[in-house]
Amino acid sequence: MFESEVVLTEKQKMRKVMIEDKDKVKEAIKHMTPSDIFALFDEDDSGLISFEEFRKMLPFLDIAISDAKALRYFRMCDTDGSGEIDIDEFQVALFACDPTSGNPVGFKPSGNLTPMDAFELFDEDQSGFLDEDEYRYAMEYLKVNASDELLEDEFFKADYNLLGMIDYEEFRDIFIRVCDVRLELEARGIDTPSLIRKKTLRRMLREVLLAEETRERRALAETRRYKKWVLAIRDTKRIMQKAEFRAYYELRSALDAAGHVYVLGTGAYGQFNGPGFDKMATKKFQFEHFQRVVELWKDRVQPQQLVDRLRARRRVEEQEEKRDEERTATGIGAIAREMAKKKLAIDPYAEALESPFAGLQVALNTASLWGRRVYQVALSENVIFALADTGEVFSWGGNSYWWHEIQPDSIFQRQWRGDTTARSQLLLGTKNKQLPPDPSLAADFDRMSPEDQLAERVKTVAKYFNVWMPPPNPAERMLFLEKDILPRVDYDATKFALECRGKRIAEATKLELVTQLHEDIVLEKRLLGEKAHKAIREIETQVGALLKRKKDKMAQKFLQKIEEMWRPLREVQAEARATQIAKQVTQQHEETLRVETQYQAWRRRTAQKREDLSGGNARAKSHKEGLEITIIGATPRAADVTTPRGAEAALQIAAGSAHAALIHRTGELYTWGVGTSGRLGLDVANAGDPQADAATPTLVQTLAERPVVRVSCGFNHTAAIVAGGDLYVWGSTAAGKCGLGTVVRSEECFCSVPTRLSLGSESRRARKVSCGAAHTAVVTESGQLYVFGCGDGGRLGLGPGRYDTHFAPVLVECLLHESVASVSCGNSTTIVCTEVTREWVGDVEDRHRRYTGGKLYVAGSSNVFGRQIDQFEHIFIRADPRFRNKTRQRSAPSDNDPFESPSSPQEEVCVKQVSAGFQHVAMVSAEGELYCWGNNRSGCCGQPLSQVFVPEPTSVPVFYTRPINLALGQRAYQSSTYSQREARYAVNGRKDGRGVKKCTCTQQEAQPWIEIDLGRMAVVDRILVWNRTDEPTDKDQPRDLYSARLFPCWLMLGRDPFPSEANVASLKDGLRNAVCRAKFTENKRVSIWRLPSNAQGRYIRLQLEQYQSLSVAEIEVFGYWGYNSGVGRVSFACAGREVTAAVVRPSHDPRDVEAAYRRAVYADAFNADVLRQFETYALEYDKVGRGDVLLPPAGAYQASNAMAERPVSSSGAFKHCPICQGVDRCEACVLLQTFNHEIHNIPPAVGGKRPRLEHISDYLYNHNKPPLEPIVVPRAARPSKWELRKQALRDRFSFARFFFPKQTAFVKAEDALSTDPKELMTALEFMQRTSVSHENASAGSSEAQGALERENTAIIPDFEPIDVDDDVPGAKTLLRTQSANAADEEASQSTRGTMQLHRKPHLHGYGDNRKVRMEVGDILPGGQVVKPAFPKSVVQQIEEHAKLREMRESQDPRDRKAKADARKVARKAKHLSK
Description:
The protein is of the alpha+beta class.
């Protein structure tokens, strides 16, 4: 890549467009979630947004506010004062600015500067006061056009107490007096008369400012409440999210246990990639919660959508973990952090990120077959059939019409032509399928979807206020309504409309107001009529105009008219609402009852139809016609979904190019589809027409008396094997594929009647048969293979040069030495596999059975195998994937190359089933692996689309793969080493263990250990520990002297390295931190540990329990790399034209089914409602129900201690829990233990059902919301009017100071903290913030004394001394006080302050001044106590706090305590001396 070529991510592209086209970015942001917006403006990708990034973001969100207001909101959201906010704090900021669905008071920030903005901007220490310099800066920021003398005069008029500071109310009053009042009112959209007094304008501006501040304070109070709620539920969300994914995982595993079907590739025309069911139902039963099953399936086969959904959550979790490291927490937060550290069994993000389905083409429409116990599939050209072990047949697919335009004179102009082509309709059984109902919206509002109801509400209210605009793009209707129409609806106008109708709205979002107003409008139109509704609207407009002109009495008269019209409506509305609430409760109970009744009826109906093997009188036909067999649709384009019937159960199904056949449980053969060339064999049934089509399965009457055991369909011919081994063929005889002899050589002909075919001169019995496009192959009971038909491309495998057409069965002599078990004929290939047997191998202790045989032989053209194979050739597939591409050979094994050791057998994969497709083949091994080979068009071989051709049999990684020895050649280390017998000898592949020279060995020490590092995370299936086998040479010693040293021992799997020490403490720590563990006490040659399902880890440790030396021959760790072990074992596969269908077999062990159900319903009761609709789990639902019997007793947890440990069984698993494994608590147990008290307080659902996780989360999030805390407004203590007059008289008559000493007016604390004059809705509370030293902050003997000091305290900036008037009353007393404390001057240099006193405060700068120095603690003439104040920035405060914390942490705790006690004694002595 050239240097100028830079690959930009989507985020970088958007940031580039942000500079060039802001409007385009605004439109794109409308489609984004808050998380996406946060990530877009997080330019450094730190997970945090600074103020500059926050300020840059606001214009793109259509939030036009000043920098001062933006800084206010940013500071409010910045909880820790770090200068950056995270995603949760960012959502809090959006809540404050969004009146539609955010704050419930309708507040939206204005772009106008307000006094509050400037005041809080320049109040750097956030004390609630501004000094003179800050006051001047604030006025300059507000662009007040006033002289310095005027500003100074106003400041000292407001500073009654001579503190040198003013509070906000004083600042606001000054702003109103000095600003351009008319300009400020016009900026806020208020028209002002030209002839009006300035005093009136100021009063109007004051009222406007008070109204703005009232709403903003209420909105900020709600925002702070929302912020506390978000922070409070953050840890609860962590626990809930883990529990929800545990329930998600267990439901998925339970469905896997009932079988599933995967379709790789889309077909030649994309016919197998059509849409699936959104909901699934028969005529009498609705499959509940089917959307959940579809969602699980999509997350599995298309993991990218799950990755995108979890990526933002993972980023937030990582950021929270970093913040949690910096702060300590207890309670729920500690539990959540404990769970994060343990890294429990499942990691959804890592699992989705490393999913083997990524990059593969897997169909989404087979979700309806999940859990249906499918065990066989068949592929035609355009349709796929699936057969369940209960006998029902499912179908889906179908090719669409390739033309789209219909001519005016076409018959399709008058009747529906169907979803698929006519040939596909024959196979799908949809020949007479009715036109689906029109999906247009219903007229009834109650029957609309929630999205449509919201759209109707917004449209009605927008038309009411005349702001409605039709959406330009119907596809983005809801986005247009939310982002364009709703902002046009004024919050105050909507609230006023409701108030005119007698509604009192305390607090509500705009959406809630729109909902209420829509209800009123509909009621008015319905009961009063359109004319009365318009009259109410006109009266409402007049009332609004009258109130603006202060004509309240006239407005009340008009409101009385609306009241008279609405009085009866209000009664009707109240009654209707009560009825609606009762109706909702009744509907909820009735819906629950309906679901339960339908479920029970469905169970009874299904059981009856399963047991009815006769087919019923209504459906029974004559023996000549056979039964009416129904094909069940698996997608909307197929047939309808019906209840399965036992009388229609099938045993096998096969499909050709355009026809299909199935074997009924009675042995009858049914065929349907295209009948050209007599391929259906219905010569007698179709009124003498041998080539007639059949739209439904029809009985082949010729074979009605001969039970059919095998059937196969080719391109246009069919073959069947009946009981006794006789072979019958029919259909097209072209190219000799029916084997009827040379009679068909001369001209094209067909055979429409099933005809018996002899195999060789001895007429051997047939066991398997397969029909290809132009040839046929048969396997006899003796294991011989016969082929006949076209020999082009070597497909018959008879040898080089033998490409002729064979019109009779020919024995394949090159396979006479093998016993052929199965054969499959494709378009131009033939593949066979031999018999699979099981034999015992190994010594006494390691004796086990393994598969042998199953050899694969292939023959055919090069477009499949990469080269033409004229004679059947053995294809060797190595069992270990690491050896498949290993071509180099050595004469002898080497110690440095464990892969070449003789203990690594070159086992061959045993193939049990084969299927040849159009240009690729599929093989299923005896272990359940799926291998594909050939052309990979549309991903039919299960490989990425980038790989066009698969040159050799390659396993499909999404399914089961043979676990490999992950420890072979990996890094190993041990606690100590004896005689250079290092730990690497335990992972070299040699298991004989004869002698210490072939084993690893440690020194004799306490609890020795050996540990293996796999290098990365893996799913471990089992671990084998091979003991040494040598014996002591001294015959007097026990024979097991060496081997017994290994026991007792512990085997542990962990995600993190274990402790490096060798002692009892390291053993206990290792057991505590292990994901799972096992103890071995019996002396064996090989100890096998089968780990729990999906056990993930990286480190394996073997540690002894006693003082001894540790010696092992080999440690084998079998598993899979990554976080996934495949979705299951494949039992059957079928290859077609650019498609492969694979069946993952259901579990046949009832114990596995029971365990899967118990785990799923223990994780979430919702899973029981889903699983009970599958016949596999119906009986389990009857036994266990929704999991109530699995829950621990109510007293099993200690409600008083959320961290209390649960009782543990002897095996290490927690009691009562079917999920817990090893030593870790599962996510469900953590949830139940943490919120035990809250969960037991949740009201039971309808019918006393156990609450689901969604109900638990709603209750935990909303039941304990924090209370609304009022906004605090600091106020200074102010004198009364009489005291101000006394002060004026004292200043005017100088002799009065001898009789009235100057004092500051005393105001009680409760008076100073009273509410403001306009009786705002928020209470006023004052808590002065100031930066003081740690020693002065803790001074004071009681809370009352501290309150008195705060009341009479002056905040003195630590600046240079300023001159003070000599003749100020009380100045000499102050000097005497300072002289008395001269002895302490040197010791208190760091706590000194200065004060500027004025004889005439309103005439600053006049008179003779001189400097007077004061100390902290001195009493001023007004009675205040001097205290220091150090206005510092947030960064300085954080730095000083960090330094202080580091200094304290570096000290010894005992020294810190002694120093603290000494400081307390010194402060008390100083206080007493004062």
